[in-house]
Write a structure and sequence with these properties.
Blueprint lengths: L3 H15 L11 E4 L10 E6 L3 E7 L4 E6 L11 E7 L6 E7 L2 E6 L10 E4 L4 E6 L9 E10 L3 H5 L10 H10 L2 E12 L3 E14 L4 E3 L7 E8 L11 E8 L2 E4 L5 H14 L10
Parallel strand pairs: 1-3, 2-4, 14-16
Antiparallel strand pairs: 3-10, 4-9, 5-8, 5-10, 6-7, 6-9, 11-12, 11-15, 12-14, 13-14, 15-16
Amino acid sequence: MLSPMLASFLPLLLLCRISFCQYSSDQCSWKGSGLTHEGHTRDVEQVYLRCSQGSLEWLYPTGAIIVNLRPNTLSPAAARLSVCIKPSKDSTGTNIYLDRNGKLRLLLREQDQAEGKVHCFSIREGALFIEAVPRTDISRRITAFQYELVSDRLRVEAQSPGAPCQPCTDAEMLLAVCTNDFVARGTIKKVDLEEEHSSVSVEISRLYRQKTHVFVPGGVRVRSWTGSIKMPLQCGVKSGEGEFLFTGTVRFGEAWMGCAPRYKDFLRLYHEAQLQGTNPCHVETD
């Protein structure tokens, strides 16, 4: 059942769509303050974000905002995208709904945001309607989250990255080297068990690719990198000797393990595919 305040917003949704509403000046991220709504607690502000990833920070929320998340290019593939949001663990002051043509569905209650868990939905399900929880004192209330646009195929993976723990097939391994967010050759130094995942500390001797700087240089004179790769607890990863080829995805700035064969096994597979002409891309193996 909708709150009385939320029900009063519904007529304003259509009004805001046909009238001039404030736009975000930054196409990727938005930061605003509810103090601009002071005395106009029923105002609904439109925010348009058109990047594959970014963030939102709403200080002292009052009233409501509608956040329209879209890619910066128009193509039929855009309809097959999903939006994933990860609230800050300090996020508070609002309830978050999905708004599709004025029909609202609760996505995240205020108390759920402190968990900091990733929540995904299809881009076809509408915009985000973020409603301030009415309070007399709005100080110290900040709603904040990061967002990413991902393909529908990666939607489940983004909510529970690396959920499947079974070894990759040969074809998946070769494709991962060509398409994953990071590809690196190195060793496992240690494995730490955390509350919801394992954190694998690695030392990288050869960095083929990384989407963002999840691996940092080990020093000026030493050509190596270090970093941490996350895996679900149920995978039961253990530290071991030998070199591995680490591949995987980057979600909200964190590296998550995908295929991770021993490097000698990858070399054998790669050279066999090279002889057969079935390699999806070229990799320097010297």
